Amino acid sequence: MGILLGALTLRPLWYASVLALGFALLVVLAFYLKSLTVT
Q1: Which keywords does this chain's UniProt record carry (predicted)?
Q2: 4 Cβ neighbours under 8 A, 6+ residues apart
């Protein structure tokens, strides 16, 4: 229960980390596609 409460209080931080992870994944995918089109 304490873990759940901590997750609720840290929701903005968790949301920001998920957003950053998604953005990083998009950037990696974009660079991968760019390298595919170049070669």
Answers
A1: Membrane, Transmembrane, Transmembrane helix
A2: none
